[in-house]
Specification:
6 strands; elongated; 625 residues; mainly alpha; 19 helices; 59% helix
């Protein structure tokens, strides 16, 4: 078990000076060998304020409040507002650290000038430094040392705070996106997995990076202006010419950064398309290899990748151009400023003035390099935030049942078609549609029927008539035009077999048992009922055979039978969990509810007959199917 993180209980001094990390690094340096490696149990667990679940829960509460009809925010970015709400205090604390860095950076040229003036015995500038003489000159190297320490400490503590803040924001948004994907309405679940993957990986990373560098957009600009003013006081109005060169670069930086952001948005569309193609190829790799279609898919993916690389190459070329210009500008400004001051304005130049000017120009390199980078990150983060908000606004399955889901077994008189207390499913003029739009036509209109406890009910009809739609309505995954569906169930679970079997990258046993408690007798029964016992006997590792992603090493019929066995095992676990004692009055329905969406379509006639008799009318004979 991982140890508790020292960041949760460390003192202020420990956090500021990284004392919580020193003992860990020293111990591993002195005692770790090849025979005593660093294990996961030796590493601290995630700090409590970085755990994704509490952060995601708080985000969901505020997001629902912001999107409620009464308090819905008009205009502006809702995700940006929530990020500010959660992290503004630590973000401002990091800003204070950066201000400390700016102060130390501005003091260093002055201290260097004082030191040079004292050592050169420059009488012209001696009156500017009356405090430093032979008695107290030792304070000059001390001040330079303190400024150097403060310079290094403040910038590192800033990045430490912002790095943790970025990780917290990234973990929170990723957890929210994963939860959103699990709650999507069935009509929106056809969205490409590539687009969602990019949201979770690329877009969240862009937001985290932008949060780390946003301080440079306002503090660095002010820092640059202060340095220019000090340069004017040092070399006169000649510094304004260098400042003019800097001003010419700012609109160029803004234009190029904005252009990079727009190119990034175009590139992400190509990235989504490529990721979708790769996912589809991996899903059908058996068919692709069998039919020799590797070259066709390689060509198709390569074509999309080449379009993506065009955008990416242009983005990197523009970034290289900006960085090259920013590294060259301080040197150019130094040459122009000193030349103009001496030749045009006849300003006297000495060692102190030259050192101060060069020091000011040297400390300009860091903020000048990061201002355009932070600006490009801002535009890219804005595009990522817009994409994430679009995904979070997709329709969801109803959080609360839109129709009453009874668990006490009682029916109010007049609410259903009949007054029979044994009715487990009641549809009274129900209308259902795949679409979430109120204007879209209903596929099923005015459907009415009842299913009593323990009944076997079959729904037949042509392709596309709404059989699967009806099952999703019973699962409360559709927006109903009227609340005319009532489902009475004994527990919170409904066993459901989907028309498309879902197979997980795990063993056969884990795919069948899933999250239920393993019971050997029930497990063997469902294996026999689903005709999997013979298949498992022919496998070298039996039911411990590991299934590939989406059951890649199973046939279509085997996938259907594994999913059918999972449904049977879940249904029998619900029945086994019921209390054995009974009361005289009618309580909750005693029959678990099982919904099967064409479970025999992928198997042959003989296997289907066995699955029907052993499973549907065998194991499920005491249940509502």
């Amino acid at each position: 078990m991982s140890k508790a993180s020292p960041l949760d209980s460390g003192t202020c001094c420990s956090l500021i000076f990284w004392r919580w990390l020193t003992s860990f690094l020293y111990f591993n340096w002195r005692h770790r060998t090849s025979s005593n490696p660093l294990l996961i149990s030796d590493v601290w667990s995630v700090p409590k304020d970085t755990e994704s679940i509490p952060l995601a829960e708080q985000f969901q509460q505020h997001w629902r409040a912001m999107n409620s009809p009464t308090t819905k925010q008009q205009g502006g970015s809702r995700l940006t507002s929530l990020l500010i709400h959660f992290f503004w205090k630590r973000w401002l604390l990091a800003g204070l650290s950066y201000i400390c860095w700016c102060v130390c950076a501005l003091l260093q040229p002055e201290i260097v000038a004082w030191t040079a003036s004292y050592l050169s015995h420059d009488n012209a500038t001696a009156t500017a430094t009356p405090l430093f003489n032979n008695d107290n000159a030792w304070t000059l190297p001390l001040l330079l040392f303190v400024c150097g320490i403060g310079y290094a400490w403040s910038i590192n503590i800033k990045f430490h705070i912002l790095s943790r803040l970025g990780v917290q924001a990234k973990a929170m948004i990723q957890s929210v996106l994963i939860g959103k994907a699990l709650r999507l309405h069935v009509n929106t679940q056809t969205s490409g997995i590539g687009a969602w993957t990019n949201l979770v990986s690329n877009d969240t990373e862009q937001i985290a990076q932008a949060m780390m560098f946003l301080h440079y957009l306002w503090l660095s600009v002010g820092f640059v202006l202060i340095v220019v003013v000090l340069m004017v006081l040092t070399v006169g109005v000649a510094a304004l010419l260098g400042f003019g060169i800097l001003l010419l670069l700012l609109p160029l930086n803004g234009m190029v950064s904005s252009w990079i952001g727009s190119r990034k948005s175009q590139m992400l569309k190509e990235t989504d398309q490529r990721t979708n193609l790769v996912a589809q190829m991996l899903q059908g790799i058996e068919v692709i290899k069998s039919w020799g279609m590797e070259s066709a898919f390689e060509e198709r993916i390569g074509c999309v990748r080449s379009k993506e690389m065009v955008h990416l190459s242009i983005i990197h070329v523009m970034r290289i151009f900006l960085k090259t210009a920013l590294f060259a500008v301080p040197t150019l400004v130094a040459v122009v400023t000193l030349h103009v001051a001496r030749v045009w304005f006849r300003h006297p130049l000495n060692l102190v003035i030259c050192l101060k000017t060069l020091s000011y120009l040297n400390i300009l390199r860091f903020p000048l390099l990061l201002i355009p980078y932070a600006l490009s990150l801002l535009f890219e983060a804005r595009a990522s935030i817009a994409r994430i908000e679009t995904f979070l606004d997709l329709p969801e399955c109803p959080v609360e049942p839109e129709c009453p889901v009874e668990q006490d077994g009682s029916l109010d008189s007049g609410r259903g078609i009949g007054d029979d207390e044994k009715q487990q499913i009641v549809l009274d003029n129900a209308s259902l549609s795949w679409s979430t739009l109120s204007s879209s036509p209903d596929i099923l209109s005015d459907i009415s029927f009842c299913a009593n406890e323990g009944e076997l009910v079959g729904v037949v009809g042509p392709v596309g008539c709404g059989k699967t739609l009806l099952l999703h309505g019973l699962l409360n995954e559709l927006k109903q035009t009227n609340t005319a569906i009532r489902v009475h169930r004994h527990s919170q679970k409904i066993s459901y077999f989907s028309q498309t079997p879902q197979i997980f990258n795990n063993t056969i046993r884990e795919n069948i048992v899933f999250d239920e408690t393993y019971d050997e007798e029930r497990y063997q029964q469902v294996l026999h009922a689903s005709c999997l016992d013979i298949d498992i006997q022919n496998m070298l590792q039996g039911d411990q055979t590991n299934l590939g992603e989406r059951g890649i090493n199973l046939s279509g019929g085997q996938k259907a039978r594994v999913a059918f066995a999972r449904c049977l095992y879940s249904a029998t676990s619900i029945l086994a969990a019921q209390p054995t004692t009974s009361t005289t009055h009618h309580t909750a329905p005693s029959c678990p509810l099982v919904l099967l969406d064409d479970p025999l379509s992928a198997v042959d006639v003989e296997v289907g007959r066995k699955m029907w008799h052993r499973g549907v009318v065998g194991i499920l004979n005491r249940m509502t199917v």
